[in-house]
Amino acid sequence: MKKRSLPTRKKNALSSFLADLENRSDFTYLNIKKEFVVHIGYYNSVTDHEQLQSKFIPYIKHLSFRSVQELHNILPAGDIHLLHDPEKIDDLMLKGYVMIYCGESPEECLLFPLPVFKSRQISIPEVEFSVVGPKEAFVESIDTNINLVRKRIPSPQLKFKELHVGDLTQTKVCVAYIEGVTNKENVNTVVQRIGDIQIDQVIDSSYIQQIISDDKNSPFPQLLDTERPDRIAAILSEGKVAIFVDNSPHVLIGPTTLVEFFSAFEDYFLNWTIASIFRLIRLFAVFFSILSTPIYVAVLTHHYEMIPKALLGTLVSSRSQVPFPPILEAIILELTIELLREAGARLPTKVGQTIGIVGGIVIGTASVEAGLTSNVLLIFVALAALASFTTPVYKMGNTIRLIRFPFLITAHVWGLLGISISICYIMAHLLRLKSLGRPFLEPIYPFRFKDLKDAFIRLPFSMAKNRPLEVRSNKPPRLNPGEGRDNK
């Protein structure tokens, strides 16, 4: 009795599910009359109904079969399923599968994939634009993104582990690595952390980045994100792990280090001496962006004796009409710059550029003439804002903008001692920080001399014989420096 009752419950559940589908506005039923009625159902929004109408339906009309089991053996389509579970059937149809069943009370339904692909065309990188090098950027389709990497690394060693995250969205996530090169511990760490995620929706790779980071309260991003396929191909060859997320044009990289956030991928397309100089300029710009305004506040508040006599007259005259202390003056200007930056980012491109340029000129000139700020501080704040734009990674640029304000507060309270305390606190935080369990401050701490060849400066490729020690690669050598040169 128990063996006969189980198929009856499945049949009843399936019939109720099929009847409920008729009440869904975006679901379509088609009937083909043969010796019996063949029912075809699909969701309009996710299924390629044009191809279904033009190719599959005429083909099915001419086929000779009496059940979906027979159709399963003769239908020329891959990844065909015979299912009776309503939940599994609905899940596949929401991914673009077409359902076929025969009669009014079917025991099983046949499903075959016919998804519609609508995505943005491949375009040039917008955030990581480079003058030299490839001009392709990732799009929102994960299959297209994987293809862009596959064509750069056409090797069977390139592996992808597929997972699905999000109770509602069931977002497809792929973990990419090169077998035999990437340390399996790094791969297992990423897969385990993504597999443990319990959330209802994942809309973008930023969700994954925030959830699997080692320190979720840190303002510093612990995974590098990029929109460049060439950069992903390069980091995979180094032995790192990449995380692709469907519907996201940005791919995550890990483990990563702090110095990588200030290295543009264009550095590898330029001569090593030029690339090294540009990298040092970026690092100087970061320190200038963080420290210039706090030092101004500290010196004018606590350390007048440090001001050179030649500069003292200029500072006195510029601040003679300003009614505010240096800290309030600096915060007003910094907040004004942030308001202009946010307004420019949220408005349409042409309008945003106009607001940023005109607003900055008008507000800056008016504030100085009104005696609300000094022209010397205005120059420092403008240069600091300009220096923050040299950071190649947008999320690290946001971090630099944020930590400038605690430096201002401590500079006002304790002067240069306060700035020193802030630097010590940031360094202590960075020393504790990790990326997928690896030191975030490498090669500074732990100190690794060999990894300095591609840190603050970029040495020539002939000196980069081994992969970085931070990734613990299974295959450290990657270059024979004698190859490609005339040894005569």
TrEMBL record:
One of its GO terms (cellular component) is plasma membrane. It is a multi-pass membrane protein. The chain crosses the membrane at residues 280-302, 376-394, 406-428. It is found in: Cell membrane; Membrane. Pfam families: GerA (PF03323). InterPro entries: Spore_Ger, UPF0353/GerABKA_families. Belongs to the GerABKA family. This is Spore germination protein GerA. It comes from Pontibacillus marinus BH030004 = DSM 16465.
